[in-house]
Amino acid sequence: MDTKNIMIVGVGGQGSLLASKLLGNLFLSEGHDVKVSEVHGMSQRGGSVVTYVRYGDKVYSPVIDEGEADFIVSFEILEAARWLKYLKPDGHIVTSNQTIDPMPVITGAARYPENLEDRLKDAGVNVDVMDCLALAKEAGSVKAVNVVLIGRLSHYFDIPEEKWIKVIEDTVPEKFVDMNKKAFELGRNFK
């Protein structure tokens, strides 16, 4: 199997590290060689956070180069646009429609770009956008956006749902398992 590449992008504190851990554990359980690289940036201050998950028969490097990502999983739509150059021509973006103002917007030095979903689609990108924050709230916590996104991503893979659920049960602290399973189901079954 050729190496497959998933980028997880967002803003610090959104749970991208748990998302990468879930994916890494899933692909390990499927018998793949897996490399995960966590690039924090200014995560502690709400800055951009990027995590690479690579899996296949043999993975030699944890880093994804421009034009190599099969999937970009984005917690915030501007982050999806920011990392677009890393997506393969036939790749997919799975993103929340949530917007979080970056520091230049907060300080008034820039304006948040408008119509990002339309711009991505107009660029010919395979983009799957949903209101992950609303679904996370429905699951029981705004912090479950990460697992809502993993649920949505799961429907692009030929891996049985019960294996995804098992990884959640094995990875998430016990007191949060039920909420995260609900978040996964809401993301997976989103229409």
Report the major sheet. Answer: 6 strands, mixed
Silhouette? globular
What's the tally of helices? 8
* Low-pLDDT stretches: none
- CATH topology name, in short, is Pyruvate-ferredoxin Oxidoreductase, domain 3
The CATH architecture can be named as: 3-Layer(aba) Sandwich
Helical coverage, percent range: 25-40%
**Rounded Rg:** 16 Å
List the helices and strands in order: EHEEEHEHHEHHHH
Which CATH top level class fits? Alpha Beta
Per DSSP E runs of 2 or more residues, the count of β-strands stands at 6
Q: Quaternary status of these chains? A: single chain
How many domains? 1
Structural class: alpha/beta
What's the CATH H-level superfamily name? Pyruvate-ferredoxin oxidoreductase, PFOR, domain III
Quote the beta fraction.
Answer: 15-25%
End-to-end Cα distance, whole Å, is 31 Å
Query: How is the largest sheet built, in terms of strand order?
Result: 2-3-1-4-5-6
Mean pLDDT: 92
Structure description:
By secondary structure, this protein is an alpha/beta fold. The protein has a single domain, classed as Pyruvate-ferredoxin oxidoreductase, PFOR, domain III (Pyruvate-ferredoxin Oxidoreductase, domain 3, 3-Layer(aba) Sandwich). It is 38% helix and 24% strand. The protein is built from 8 helices and 6 strands, in the order E-H-E-E-E-H-E-H-H-E-H-H-H-H. A 6-stranded mixed β-sheet has the order 2-3-1-4-5-6, with helices on both faces.
Brief rundown of the structure:
The relative contact order is 0.16. The protein is of the alpha/beta class and 191 residues long. A six-stranded mixed sheet has the order 2-3-1-4-5-6, with helices on both faces.
